[in-house]
């Protein structure tokens, strides 16, 4: 049985809203539905793998994650047209939604969770929903075609573990765009109150370590940007573009 969490916290964790205050406002407005049922109390505890939907959603994507990837694709001038994409840590589907709107051919949406992918994304024929799947142990038979692009947005795990597992599913010439979250890279001693990394040297060191790790696996670091959309606790994340060349 799935663990339960307050609905206002889950809205922030899934990046459907940016703060708990905003989550509580949307709940009070009657905009929040869990497994198809309206929830009107911020303290209501719901399964962490529940399907959550916001009515009257004014984002261009199913979650704020799409805004993050959009910023990177714009900054990198990256064309997703006709790409086969693997989305690692798909969650609600913000990254998947973003590449679909940019004309990706199809997307393999991988996540250890269950029931989190937004209905709009779940029913899109271009999406192969690989839920309850850990990228580190994913059966290659589930992704029968090599991918042109990997996009990664994982929490509670270091990219040191995610990157090499993801590379198995890419073409010899392929791209990878990873959201580097310092709070999961610096170690617990450098994470302050509220889960925020305030030590800029520790943050930069974490970014450089992930880049070095990617290079050790044959990837070239082309560009990177500070994410203009901050993480739920206010962490400044980093979007890195890597490329593998034959």
TrEMBL record:
One Pfam family this sequence matches: S4
Gene3D superfamilies: RNA-binding S4 domain, Vaccinia Virus protein VP39
Domain of life: Bacteria
One Gene Ontology term from the biological process aspect of the record: methylation
Domain RNA-binding S4, chain residue ranges per copy: 5-67
Record keywords, A-Z: Methyltransferase, RNA-binding, Transferase
Molecular function via GO: methyltransferase activity; RNA binding
Xref: PROSITE patterns: S4
Annotated family: Belongs to the TlyA family.
Protein name: TlyA family rRNA (Cytidine-2'-O)-methyltransferase
Species this protein is from: Lujinxingia litoralis
């Amino acid at each position: 049985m799935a663990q339960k969490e307050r609905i206002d916290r889950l809205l922030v964790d899934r990046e459907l809203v940016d703060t708990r205050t905003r989550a509580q406002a949307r709940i009070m407005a009657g905009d929040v539905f869990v497994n198809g049922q309206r929830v009107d109390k911020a303290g209501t505890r719901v399964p962490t793998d529940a399907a959550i939907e916001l009515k009257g959603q004014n984002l261009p994507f199913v979650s704020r994650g799409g805004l993050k990837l959009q910023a990177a694709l714009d900054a990198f001038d990256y064309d997703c047209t006709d790409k086969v994409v693997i989305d690692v840590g798909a969650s609600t589907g913000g990254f998947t939604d973003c590449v679909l709107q940019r004309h990706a051919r199809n997307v393999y949406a991988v996540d250890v969770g269950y029931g989190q992918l937004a209905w709009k994304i779940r029913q899109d024929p271009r999406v192969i929903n690989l839920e309850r799947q850990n990228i580190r142990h994913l059966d290659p038979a589930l992704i029968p075609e090599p991918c042109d692009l990997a996009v990664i947005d994982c929490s509670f795990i270091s990219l040191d573990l995610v990157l090499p597992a993801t590379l198995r599913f890419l073409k010899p010439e392929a791209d990878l765009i990873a959201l580097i979250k310092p709070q999961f890279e610096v170690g617990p001693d450098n994470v302050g109150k509220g889960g925020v990394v305030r030590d800029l040297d520790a943050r930069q060191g974490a970014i450089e370590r992930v880049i070095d790790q990617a290079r050790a696996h044959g990837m070239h670091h082309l560009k990177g940007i500070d994410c203009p959309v901050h993480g739920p606790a206010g962490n400044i994340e980093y979007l890195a573009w890597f490329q593998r060349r034959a």
